[in-house]
Structure formats: C-alpha cells, structure tokens
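new request in #modeling-help
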Amino acid sequence: MSQYLIRHTTTYHYAFEALDSQNLSCLVPANFPGQELRDWNVDISPTPEWSHHWIDVFGNKRDAFSLASPHKELVIEMLARVDRNYTERVTSPLPWESVILPDGKAWQTAPPMMREFVCNSPQLPVQEGPGFDADDCFEPGLNVETALLRFMERIYDLFTYDPKATTTFTPLAEVYKKKAGVCQDFAHVAIAELRRRGFSAGYVSGYLETIPPPGVEKLRGADASHAWYAVYIPGSGWMHFDPTNNVVPGNQHIITGWGRDYSDVAPVKGVVLGGGSHKVDVQVDVWRWPDQVPEEYRSVLDGQH
Amino acid sequence: MIANGTPNIPNPEGLQSYQERLGTDGKALESWESFLSIIRDSTSIDRDYWQNTIRREIREDGLTFALTPERAPVHRKEELDPVPWIFSADQWRKIEAGISQRARVLEAVARDLLGPRTLLSNGTLPAELFFSDTNYLHPCISLPPNMDAWLFQYAADIARGADGQFRVLEDRTQVPSGAGYALESRTIMARVFPKAISSMQIRRLAPYFRRLRESMLTLYQGRHLDPRVVLMSPGPYSPSYFEHAYLAAYLGYTLVQGSDLTVRNGCLKLKTLEGLEPVDILYRQVDAEYLDPLELKRDSFLGVPGLLGAMRTGKVATLNHPGCGLLENAGLLAFLAPLCRHFLGEELLLPSVATWWCGQPVELQHVLTNLNKLVVKPLHRKWDEPARDGRFCSNEKLAELRAKILSHPQGYVAQEPMSYSSLPSLVGDQIVERIGGLRSFAFAKPGGDYEVMPGALARSAGETSGGPGSLLENKGTLKDVWVMGDSPEAHESLWKNTSPAKGTERFVGVFTSRSAENLFWVGRYAERLMRQARLLRGMIQLEDGRMDEEDPSEELQQMRTLLETYCGAGDEQSDLSLVASVQTCLSAVDKPGGSFHRNLSALMIAAYTVRDIWSQDSWRILTDLEETGKACAEPGAPLGTLETDLGDFIGQLNAFYGLNANGMTRGSGWSMLMLGRVIESGVGLCELLHGMLEPAEEAGSVGYGLMEVALEQNENLITYRRHYRTTPQIGSVLELMVASEINPRSLVFYLEQANQHLDRLPPPVQSEMLQPAMLRIRQVRSELLQKETLTVGPEGELDFLPSVREVLEQVSSVVSSAYFSHTTLHQREDF
C-alpha cells in the first residue's frame, strides 16, 4: 500500500482586471477499487462569492464557484491525501471478439449502462475509418488483455510525446496527422479507435508519481496531472492502460476523474468577464506520505473533509 | 361563382390524399361548407380585398421582416391563405386527446432519462439510442427543473395519411416554436373574417395563452411567491426573432438575450438600467446546448455562464428543462407506443409515423432491404444532413446511403414516407386543393395533464405534391386553423384578469441595458437620417429654384463641401450636377461618415432588436420608412421623384417621432431614445455650422444659398423668415441656430434637453458635463445678435463649436459605458 499527498495548484494571471468569472473544477480524487480518498480541500484565492460542490453523473466530485470582485490573479489549490492499494489486476479469460459490441457474447449479461462508453462523445465524434493501422493487434481468438496490451504498445510506438504539438482542443484528425501530442491525445486516440472497433472505453484523468533518479532530490511542482484510458470487460470490470508510458497503471497512477473524454473531466475551466489575455501556471506534487511531504503541508488537511 | 376545386392530388406513392373537406361518406362536411360558401359567394372585389388586407397586415406586423447573417434587413416571403383549416369540435377532440397523451408520455420519459435512467438500466429502451445522441446533455442529468414539469411546452408536427389517420412526424420538445405564428395568423384572420369566426363559433386563442401564463407560475417551485419571468431569445439574427418579440410583447414578459443576463452569487440576474434585477423563471427560446458556455457548448455566445449552476442550487427554473431536447430523438418515435403502455397503461392515441432505429440488428436489416421505399434521417435534425427520401434516390445514391448508415447505424432512423391530406386553398381566384400539415401546441398544467391549443400552425405546400419534408419549417403558405366550439365563446382578452399579471409586474418600466442601448441608437440613427434627408432635399430644391441668381459655381462648390462633410460623399465629382451628387450620396452603400444607406440599415436593426417595445403603428411606420428610404437610395431611381420621396421619408420619420412622443411612457427608455436624438441633433448641428462657415474662411462671407440650405436642414427657414423678415444675415442666423432659448432646434436648446434627460436617468451619470458649454453659448448670444459680419476660424466668436461637439460625443460615450454592457466574455483556457 502507498499513501500520497497530492497538491495541484492552478494560477491564472490576467493582463487586466477580471470583473467576474464562473468556474468549474474536477480536481478531487475519487474512490475507486484500490484507491481511497482520506481527506481533501480545495482552496481558492480570492475567496469566491459563491461555491457549490456536487457529484456529477459519472460520480466525480465537482466544484463550481464564482468571483465577482475585480482581481488580476486566481489561485486554485487542491490538496488530497489518498491511499493506493492496487493489488488485484483486472484480467479476463475471454477472446477479444466476445467483449465487443454489438454482438459480443459477454455483453448479453452486462449492465446496459456500460454501453455508454462505446458511443460517440463530445470530443470524440463518430469516426468513419481507422485513425491508424492496428488490425494486427486483434488476431482472431486472441485473449482480450493480450490484444489490448498490443494495441496500447502500437499507440506508444506510433505517436510521439510532444507538448508543443497540440492544445486541449486539438481535433482528433489533427492528432492522427501529426502523430504527436500529450497524454490526453494518446488517451483520445486510443478511445476513439477502440470504440470504432466496438469496445467500451472511458477516459481517466489523474496523477502520476514521478521518481527522480537515485540520489537526485525531487523537484517541487515537477509531477504532472495525467490521463489514460480504461476498457470495460463484461464479467471482469475496467482494465486500465497508460499509452503515454506503455504501462498498465498501478499504485503510481492516482485517479481523479472519469468520463467519456476530456471534456467530461477538465480539471479547471472558466468563463471570464474582462481580464484580457491570461497566463496559466500549473504545479503538481505527488508526495509519498509522510516522508516526502514538506513540513508546511503536513498538517494542512487536519480538520478538513 | 368560382370554380370549385381541382380533383384529388395523388400522393407520390400513387395513393389519393385524404380530402379534409369530405366526410368518410364522401359528402362535403358542414364545417367546411359554411366557410367555403362565403368564398364561393364572394365577388372578385371581395377576394382582392381579403388578399390585400392579409398582405398588408403581414407586412405591417413585421411577420416578414428578418435580418440576414450579413446584418442587413431583408423581407422574406410569408403568405397566409385566406382559407383556414377547419376542424369540427368532435374532430378536434381526438387530436386534443392524442396530443396531451403524447405529452404525458414524453414528460414521464424526460423525468426518467434525466433522472434515475431506469428505462436504460433495465433495458426498456436501448441505451445506445440515447448515449449516441448529442442532445443527451450530461450536465443536465439530475439537474432539478425547479418546476413541477420538465416538458412545460410541447408541440407535435402531424399530418393525415391517405387512410384518414393523423400521425406524428416529429415531436418538438426543445423549443417548440410556432405558437406565435399561429397567434399572428389568427389575429390577421380575425380582421378579415370577423363574422365567420363568430358565427361558426371558432374557439379563441387568448384563453390558451392566459392559462399558459398562469400555469407556469403555479408549476414553479422556487423560492419566490411572485416569480419574475423573462423570455430569452437568441437575438435579432435568429429567424424566429419576430415570434420571440411578438410572444414577449403579447405575454408581457421582458424580452432578453443571453448577454442581458448574468449569474451573481448563484442567482440569475437581469442587467437593467437600474442595476441587477433577480430572475426566477427563464422562458427560453434558445436551444439547450447554447445555454451555458461553462458547462455546455463552450463557444456559445448566446448563453449565460453559470446558468446550470444556478439551476442546480434551486435558484432558477428554465423551461423547457434543458435536457428536454433529447425527446426529439427520432428513434424514440419507434418506442412511444410501448412507453405509453408502460407509463400510462393506455394505447397510444396518436401514433408516430412508422419508424425504425437502425441501431438494432433486425430493424437495420429491414431498413437496408427497403431502402428505396423509406426516408432516412439522422437521429436529430441537422442542417448539414437533410433527410433522404429513398424513393427518389438513384442506385448510386442508395449505395451511398447504405454505406452511411452502416458506418454508424445508431445515428440513423428510417421512416415510412409521410403522406399529407389535401386542403381547399384560395390561390388567385380559384379554390384549389393543396396538401398540408400542422403543428399542434400544448402546455403542462398542475396535476400532470396538458392543455392543447384550440388552433395550430398549419402550412400548405405549393403546387407540387411532393412530400414537403420540412413543411412546417418556414416553407409553404401559412394557414390558420379553426376549431369549432360547442357553444359561443365570449371574447376574452389575455389581460382580462384583475391587476397586473403575476410574473410581469416586477419588470414593468424596466429596461434592460441592451434595450436602452438600442433605443439610444434608434434615436441617433433616426436623427442622423432626418438631417441627411433634409439636407439632400434642400439641395435639390435649391438647384431647382435659384441657382442662377448669384455666382453659381462658387455656391455649388460650397454645397459640395457641405455634402461631403455631412453625407460622406460628393467629393471630387464636380462635373456632376448637384442633384446627381445628391443621388450619389443616397445610393452610396457605405462611406466612413455613415452613408444614408448604412444609417437606414443600422436604424432598422436597432429598432428590430427592441421590436417588443414598438406599438403596431410605430412598427408600421418604420416598415414604410424603410421602404421609402430604400426607394430613395436606389441607384437608378428617377431624379424627378427624388424630392417627393425624400419628402415622404421626412414625413414618415416625423410620424415616428410623433407616435413615440404621444405613446411612450416617460421612463428611462424614453430618456434614452431622446438622449440619442438630441445628442445626434447637437452633433449634426455643429457639423452643419462647420460646413456652412468653413467656406467663409476663404471667401469672407457665407452665401445666401448656403445659409438657406443650412436653415432648411435645421428646419429653421420658416422660423427665420417669420422672425427677421429679411434675407439671411449671418449674425441672426447663428443666433437662431446656436443660442436662441426659444428655438427648439438651437444648439443650446439641445444641450438643455440632453441635460434634462440625463437628470432623469438612474445614477451614476452627472449632467454637469454639459454646463460649461451651455454657459459659453449664453455668453456669446448677445454678441451674435449684433453681428452682421463674423470672424470665423480659431479666433472667431464660434471658436467653441468644435468643443461642444466634442463634449456631446463625450456624453454619448459616458452614457454608453455607464449603462450599456461592453465587456466581453472570454472562455479561459482549461487546465
């Protein structure tokens, strides 16, 4: 088991005074098999005039808040302590053909609601042809896990990690063309292609603990928010895949949000009145509790949720 | 007598269409006969009169006025058939029962799909049918409606097949539009056939709208006992804006756009001149997707950021509930009969047109086998993907269609082609048969039932009998729908009841910042047009009259200069006659200074944006004004009629001013309109004086002609002659136009008026801004009175003119920044 303290700070600097803003966040880690949220807090500065916390249709913790007095900087700091005890890897004895829709046998007894993740979604519209060649990953009769691992590796091999290649709203077709992007694009590319093949695939947002080389001290803010995907296997559950690193997520992958694609779980979004152009600064720390946690963060969550 | 009808029109499939005017026994129905006999017994004079009256009413009410995306006013073709679609009381009862039953089923479906979703989780409905639907908006699931109705308003497009059965082609649940057109058609018909309506005991529409308004308030579950309602439109560029303005004015709700609203502290607010006012019920005419750029379509400019959050915390009711668009999913039509049994334990009275959702293997097979007999549609109406009628597709097209369906079967449905019944229509001088369909409307009542409008929006197709796919979408001829009552119905006004209707009184006299801004610009543009029209007419008259008296060339040059400063045209074309220059001015589409043409468009757009506040007469005048103005601006218009046309234009503008002066309440709206007018008058007068005096810097004097044109342009020529009884002298001319305290067209008078209107506006604007300019003018007045010659230029007596102009423009921008909202919303980058 591992326990982590996660700090995720988003700072917006506006060129002019922002008069008013409406914001929505999806930052707080969820409870999932193998993951338990201990305590958490979202601190916003300046203090919002209004805020509301609710659980969305996918079970994610959401916060809405608004600011109504002029400000030039907005800081959102999320702190959460999470236990990870990811011991049982999801496996399946089935060949891949029996877990795809519409005809896969395993679906006959599966909950209909899981079919949602085979359908098109806001950022991943219906795709007529394949985005890249992956037919050979799905040899007839191959075990589904083996096939999906090959598929993940194919993405890892074909696409280059390049933060400059895309933005949060680069359309999929362009990602296919550039064969480059960030974790969000890797996940989208995989999900779209899997859905086209009849798999039920969801988007997972979260954090990844980075481990510095031996002897090197971990830098503050150097960790990153991360994204990967999961495939629903009737009879077994969700199988997670991280195509950016070509690994099956384990304890170092902490889950925050769950949805059909990025648009369901964008960490922070907002509509601003005034403000002009803006710069944004994001810092993420994934600290092992308690050893790696800096002194000043040891007790900040006392008395919180 | 005129010829009675053409024979039956065959439907495309070769079947005879059902004839509405005949009973099952093939005999003419009494309901139709009593009306058709009026037509048959009429003379051609009667028929001309009816058709002319209808055309005039349609035009005058603004039914045809629309703005193009290129931001120019156009008149679209809209016609109303003098022959209504007539239903006997018994016939209509069946439709009524069918419509309200469907609405009840759909309400139950909405409550489930936007709530617990058991219909999907237990497999009653196929999950993919809704999960692949882009109108299944996830942020709207479990979003409380804060109303005891999710589907408050419902409409259904129905048509009668050859077998005599009415079927539903489409359910309208997102923004069921068209009720305003039905109301408008009835209003016009009531003017044309008042006797027939009362003798046939045709049911009235006003009680329906009165009860709709009451029901809305009863169903509201929010915190206020007296909720305040606004009607939200996408704005004047929406093709339905006429209807939104019409309904808002009729129901007494404030007409707003997304930019008029804001969410503060989790509550929805209306931006008014007086500040932010709370809103409890949002009666939306905007598709849900566009309602909240924070949670829904992020690039929408039509919505209110944070609206869904305000709903989620129970502060505001939006109707229809933003999730209701999903009930328009065409695949749902196939499941409505079982759902009706499931929820109501009843058989569906008004069936859907036979529909197959391609997301199921058996249905898909059926569709692919019968592709050349079916109509294929995407799950939702899409502008870029119209329905395809397989009967009219080549083999090649059919193959394409098949591939399209197979690439995404869940996204398509196929339907049996709908056939329409045929209706008597008056075309020219003949009663002919035309096929048509109708849209029926209903609203939710407390207790879960629905009330159906005793009338509808009907349209009939043109001469071709081909199935008009979107007959009810602004195509075809409008037809009023008459439902006969069992007993005579007393005339009842919407406003019959008691004191001010609840939900409306709070906003009486309140102007949104946007309305105020548009009124201000109506004032400015109208005055600018008035000044341009007067100047141009004055020039024509001058050329006609007395060009030959003095040195014509010099004066001509001065006139040209004036034209250039004033109308932004007329520059170097000195070989043109003055009248020709005037015409060039009028027809110039665009000039930096604001051509006549452009000002006219801008006036109409600003006026249309606040369409809900103009009386019928005011709008009629504006429509006439636009037509006259366009005739003047026509490039090839005969020079001979130009003077008369400009005269008509000026007369119409004056009539518009007069109607406003007599009819508008003296609130902030009036002050904004007047402020726009007097500021423009002041600015225009400063420009005129500058144009008049500038040539004198070189010539040393101002020509009589120029002074007369200037006096005439400022509507002061007669006044001048009466007061001074001489040919114009520069000193007294300037005294009259600049400093006279009793001349309502003097600069100081305008400043005084601007001052008074500023004082009437709610804080924060201070009227002291204008004080120094007024003081200065009063000082200079006595000097002017003694002048026969004048020093012009920087050292002259009127050296302050440029600064007066400047201060007026400053007032304009101060008003604008204090009362109108200009800051734009930005979608921040996500992280």
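bot summary: The interface with chain A takes residues 117, 120-123, 126-128, 131-132, 134, 138-139, 141-142, 262-266, 293-295, 298, 305-306, 309, 312-313, 361, 407-408, 410-411, 823-831 of chain B (CB under 8 Å).
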